[in-house]
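Give me structure tokens for this 400-residue protein.
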Amino acid sequence: MVLKEKQAIEIEVIGGPFDRITTVLQEFEPGQKDFIVHPAQCGIEPRSVPEATEREVEVTIPARLHPTVLDMNRFNTSRPGGGGMGIGVGIYFTAKVRSTTKPEIVVKGERPLIATHFAMVLKEILGYQGGFEVELYDHKRRHVGMGSSAGSMTAACIGINEVLGRPFNNRELRRIIGYNACEESPRGNSYLIRGFETGIGAMVGVKGGILLATDNLELIYQVPMPDTKVVIVIPDVPSLTDEFTGEKTAAESEVELLMRRARYLDYLQTGTKSQIVLLDMLPAMVQGNLQGIGDALFDLCFLGSKRAECEQHGISGTHIYNYIASFREVGAELAGMSSVGPTVFALTKKEDVLSRLLAFLQSNGVAKSRIMVTEVDNTGAKIVENGIGRNYTGESWVSS
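Here you go.
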């Protein structure tokens, strides 16, 4: 196959009155060495696994909802971070990974560019002389705010790290993923581009539950939320023309949104956002108070970058805010929009509220194909090896 010439997209970044820089999205091939970030470049002690082995595992991780970023001025394509909130939900990614004594990398299933790239990244940075066979499947809701790229990266990396005997602990693996984050080029060729990464997808994929992260990919707090139902909706909004994949949008590109208006609003309001997180949301998480977490998140939905993300979906955010407010009105303890959207969601522990949420959606003519009903996943990553399953919850390597 003949590859098209790689392109670079220059985007002016506006973070504040005195913040005017340009970020560049450069297309690259999976495993292209000048796009591999090594451990020493992201604060990790180098590791080595040169000896080739034969081992196979199957990994299952939950999808993530990403209700808010703390400050979009703290990340770029070359620097993951920004902090934020994540929720693990019962919609899953699977990756079957086998290490081999042969040096080839063979990838099957979905998201082959991402899986190939991270197999080549880990092979390169560990000096691994063998190869990998990776079969990866995502949840098929792509580019709508449900972390399909982050989840694919995380599932593949957990599997590769596992078959190689865990050369990296959880925190280190999260940094490897974050600093090498990527997604397929929107031109639909065989190239990748750097992603904007907070680390929330990797944290949720391993740990599940509801969690908060700060800048530079550091986890602050995680709390399980048992017996909590989740209603997820991909609404029919002007910015989305494809039922599930979000291949085309009528709004500005996601990158331009994040790098311009969202950053500017965070420049103005990050202090207020941080105060809400520290003084309202975090205490509610410690108390296991879903209503309190939801009250704090509702305020954050109208501030900073989340406001910009909601606004891109038409009529100054009216489409999205109608869902969020209506979910709360019928009794949901927590509601919001995930990432850049348009996916909206509601969490509740009450069966009668779940019934009212579904009745609301039905009365508004929302197609069943756009509605998912599941629950908070409090387990995180699960591994099956030789027919025996295990999960990472409670294991010492996850505590960091």
